Amino acid sequence: xxxxxxxxxxxxxxxxxxxxxxxxxxxxxxxxxxxxxxxxxxxxxxxxxxxxxxxxxxxxxxxxxxxxxxxxxxxxxxxxxxxxxxxxxxxxxxxxxxxxxxxxxxxxxxxxxxxxxxxxxxxxxxxxxxxxxxxxxxxxxxxxxxxxxxxxxxxxxxxxxxxxxxxxxxxxxxxxxxxxxxxxxxxxxxxxxxxxxxxxxxxxxxxxxxxxxxxxxxxxxxxxxxxxxxxxxxxxxxxxxxxxxxxxxxxxxxxxxxxxxxxxxxxxxxxxxxxxxxxxxxxxxxxxxxxxxxxxxxxxxxxxxxxxxxxxxxxxxxxxx
Length: 321
Known about the structure:
single chain, alpha+beta, Thymidylate Synthase, Chain A, 2 domains, about 25% helix, about 25% strand, globular
């Protein structure tokens, strides 16, 4: 639970110290701080957060897509990741994004990921164990510039520590999934190196909360949180042979047990509203993102007038910055 509490502390820091920005790219407006730091202990508990249910299957699909250097949204969707659609060209092309740069930097056949793993095996204390997705040469061809643009490995006491550098972080929606993504990546790298994941550290450039998430941000620390789930990776899985398991498969890549999460949050109303898809809920003039499966229930004051508008939204992650 301590990892989730560290995340709540970051949310509170942005609420108390953040500066309003109304001219940012999306037009939604944010409250932001510059230069945030978040340190999590994967040994103490896997950081799949429980204050709301995280769409972990999509995150697993995204990780596998990156490891396979996919550049077409249809490949992402085949692996269960559906939130890249809005940035894809009509033919599905995403350009040379994240995984392409990891495995074939600038089209030069430079496999950064494999090179780092091989170097770590012979020189585990190297300060050059770094992988970058940032490539100014290819920037104009990318559907979206990388938010988490690089990560660095440090191996100490037979444990893997990972530092993730992000230029921009949507703290309420994107960051919990980005944390899960890199914790899963740590499992893969640890498998390759036969070591144990330990510290997962994030350096965030612009850490922000969108204006339409502020209401949720103010009460997120009040939500019930649960013990972190148990997440394991098949001992044979490596960067080039990770797959999506199906119900008929006896060979599971990622296994997840005991994932309890908050499903009823945010507001009190006179009736239960069960969302059928990813939606934006608007109460009076104050919008808030909710997720598939979320419920809204409770009691409203007698005589109170509340207008509820539900607008369907395709993406679990409506903002990447």
